[in-house]
Amino acid sequence: MKKLYTVLAVVIAAAFILTACGGNSGASSNNLLDAIKQRGYILVSTDPNYEPQSFLDTTGKRPDSTKCPSDALTTAEMKGFDVDVARKIGDALKVETCFATPSWDAITAGNWANKWDISVGSMTITVDRQKVLNFSVPYYYTPAVVAVGMDSGFTKLDDLAGKALCAGTSTTYESWLNNDMTALGLPESSIYAKAPANVKVVTLETDQECAQAIASGRKDFVGYVTSATVVDANIKAGLPVMRLGSPVYSEDLAVAVDKATTKNTDTLLKAIDDTITAMHADGTLSSLSTQWFGSDLTKAPK
Q: Residue 261 in contact with residue 32, Cβ under 8 Å?
């Protein structure tokens, strides 16, 4: 019996030594990157209805061997530019990439309660968002445009004065329509036009839903504001819409990380920055942009 107590004492002492020396650091570490590597996957928030940036792959089959949580989507079940960028980040970290699909306003509000690790969802860097989120270096840049129904009869931006326009809730598009330059949070050099006078703003969960609503015959708004990439995809998909005029502002889009996370994110952000910088340098981002958008949107506008 005495011998058994001696063995137990040695085991317990060894456990204390391992803890003091950082044994099993992934489980107990206060570092988010360590925790991600220890569990073997990174959970990325993105939009399942934002083609061509991110959308559900109806032909995709969830692999049996995935490490993704049961309520998360795998790379086999999602497609798009943002999805591929997120997958490349996961590959660089040597972990599987999984996707959560919370509402956009929940993502931009911060305070994620550790429900997902990062956002790769074509998020524009703004002053207000920087109060609650940390951003990587931009991975691409898009112009924001106004789109209207093909048979609307509108030919220029001023034609929309006093009309109702749609935008995704908590987006820069909503801020621009409201002429809220503080909330828009962009440098003056990135803003090319003001919203039409006295517009009524109608918000839906995402700006993609604005286009889909017009296509379904909804009449309480005459157009919508979104990324040029989304409008181009809408037109390619056969939706009866068209761009109206030139871009109204330009967006710098980046990966976001919650400032309120309970784990330190410094090394994770550096790893993401290093990955994005490398993908800019070796042409990976340019290739993905051309694949999904038909043009290279990875160079900052001059």
A: yes
How far apart, in Å, are the Cα atoms of 118 and each of 125, 198, 219, 259?
Answer: 14, 37, 37, 11
Backbone angles phi, psi at 200, to 5 degrees: -95, 130
CATH topology of domain 142-251: D-Maltodextrin-Binding Protein; domain 2 (3.40.190)
11's tokens: 């085991």
In sequence order, which residues have a C-beta less than 8 Å from that of residue 13 and are 6 or more positions away? none
The CATH architecture to which 19-140+253-293 belongs is 3-Layer(aba) Sandwich (3.40)
Q: At 118, phi and psi to the nearest 5?
A: -145, 165
Query: pLDDT per residue over 159-192, tens digit each?
Result: 999 999 999 999 999 999 999 999 899 989 899 9
d(CA 293, CA 197): 31
- Cα–Cα distance list, 120 to 135, 250, 279 (Å): 10, 18, 15
What are the Cα distances from residue 115, in Å, to 42, 133, 194, 284, 302? 11, 15, 37, 29, 37
Q: What does residue 182 show for φ and ψ, rounded to 5 degrees?
A: -65, -45
For residue 98, which of 46, 59, 134 has the smallest C-alpha distance? 46
- How far from chain centre, in Å, is Cα 122? 4
What string of DSSP letters covers 133-198?
Answer: EEE-S-SEEEEEEEEEETTS---SGGGGTT-EEEEETTSHHHHHHTT-HHHH---GGGB--PPPTT
Distance CA 83, CA 274 (A): 18
d(CA 123, CA 172): 9
pLDDT in tens, 277-294: 999 999 999 999 999 999
